[in-house]
Design brief:
This protein has helices spanning about 15-35, 40-55, 70-85, 90-115, 120-135, 150-165, 170-185, 205-215, 225-230, 245-260, and strands at about 190-195, 200, 215-220, 220. With about 270 residues, it is mainly alpha-helical. It has two domains: about 15-115; about 170-260. The chain starts with 14 loop residues before the first helix and ends in a 6-residue tail after the last helix. The mean pLDDT is about 85.
């Protein structure tokens, strides 16, 4: 990569200058894409992406205070390039680098949201991250397709939850709670039949006890998703998050990932 990707007629690499240039290339690429001028769009997005890589400090939307380039802009640059560059493209390695960069960006956004105490936004972004690394469209992460899920990504995600919640949230925390419930009930822990897409030895009673303990249910009734974050005291339940957008729908996805990736916490 060139040492300096800024125009030859300027030596200004200030945050404002770099972000303005990236934003202009992003808008240019978006216009080309709308006009179906995909090669031109790729060229513009590539310039924007390369500048993001060259100037990470000036373009970090979670650290600096120059409100030109937003986190959504950065994400769109990545996603639009992935959409335009085919999987079988000669630029395969470059495309993989874009995916890796987007994954890093999404994790940084999650970390930022948690540090700001924006737990509901973080929970929704958590599900979006799982869908992205699972290489699926929104809300299409199916149980039988999880056997090849990249476990290192789940563990990295879990570490962010643990770090920002004083070890109260995370997949490993939830896994430990559910394991203890199965053990106390004297029943073998469940396993996953990946070919059939089903859980073996799954206990609905253990699941309901789990939901009660982590605050997804109240007096035998499932809470609406919004109430997981607004009802007084809910956020203080250990293991309360992540909830995946709606607890009674995505719980089975989470629990299959628990088993696949053997997430465990010593906390």
């Amino acid at each position: 990569m060139p040492k300096n990707l800024l125009p030859n007629n300027t030596k200004d690499n200030s945050t404002e200058m770099v972000q303005t240039l990236i934003f202009s290339k992003f808008i240019q690429g978006d216009l080309f894409q709308q006009q179906n001028k995909n090669e031109d769009a790729i060229k513009s997005y590539t310039k924007a992406f390369n500048l993001l890589q060259e100037y990470p400090q000036q373009t970090n939307p979670f650290q600096n205070t120059v409100p030109i380039l937003t986190a959504a802009n950065v994400e769109s640059i990545h996603r639009n390039m992935l959409e335009l560059i085919p999987l079988n493209s000669p630029q395969k390695d470059y495309r993989n680098g874009i995916r890796t960069s987007l994954k890093k960006h999404l994790l940084a956004e999650l970390d930022y949201l948690m540090k700001q105490g924006k737990w509901q936004e973080a929970d929704r972004e958590d599900w979006g991250f799982l869908v992205f690394v699972g290489d699926k469209d929104e809300d299409e992460l199916e149980l039988e397709e999880l056997g090849k899920f990249p476990c290192e990504d789940l563990k990295e995600l879990d570490d962010i939850w643990l770090k920002n919640s004083n070890n109260n949230y995370g997949y490993s925390v939830q896994k430990n709670i559910l394991t203890r419930i199965y053990r106390d009930r004297g029943i073998p822990f469940y396993s996953v039949d990946w070919e059939q897409g089903r859980l073996i030895n799954w206990s609905e009673e253990a699941y309901l006890q789990f939901a009660d303990e982590i605050g997804w249910r109240n007096e035998g009734e499932w809470l609406a998703y919004r109430d997981l974050f607004t009802e007084s005291g809910r956020l203080y339940y250990r293991g309360h998050l992540p909830a995946g957008g709606t607890p009674d729908f995505r719980g089975l996805i989470f629990f299959s990932l628990f088993e696949l990736c053997s997430v465990n916490s010593n906390i």
